[in-house]
Fold this protein.
Amino acid sequence: MRIVLVGPPGAGKGTQAAYLAKNLKVPHISTGDLFRANISQGTTLGKLAKSYMDAGNLVPDEVTIAMAQDRMAQPDAANGFLLDGFPRNVSQAKALDEALATDGVKLDAVLDLEVPEDEVVTRIAGRRVCRNDSAHVFHVTYSPPKTEGVCDLCGGELYQRDDDSEETVRTRLEVYHTQTEPIIDHYRAQGLVVTISALGKVTEVTERAMAALERGRAA
């Protein structure tokens, strides 16, 4: 299956992408991984992307699209892929449509993870990270430390990252609503959108997603 995964920040896209890709036996292709791989390998596209990033500028759509096309052309993606973080806007979605049409293939579904805005704020703004080890992550509501402000694993101080503040989260949500959410209507016009609730346990959301994708494939 060829799937695009969309949803607001805090919807659990990265977690669900990993589980779904494993269940569907297709590669998980994320924008972040594309950039890191191309830059670390010193590819032409990676060098170009880095030049924009080093200058503090956004990487142009055409560079991101070229990276995605190159990745989707790899042998392990011959039978499908799961795109996470791409496309981010309607122009990228249209470019993806054209690229796939050129290759004689098309998307099977666009999986829309739906989460209420207040829940997104609760999920992200409640995160607390250990100053000693950023891999030690807690949540004031869902996985609180035994002692407030203290890491259970090493005793380090827990703090809220600037990116996790409520103000920053709401700004990110506004960017999502303005730039990324319109691709849902773009794909809905093609009959590709499958919307599911991303509330509940990770396994419950995965099962919900797999069932919805199977129904879509059978339709």
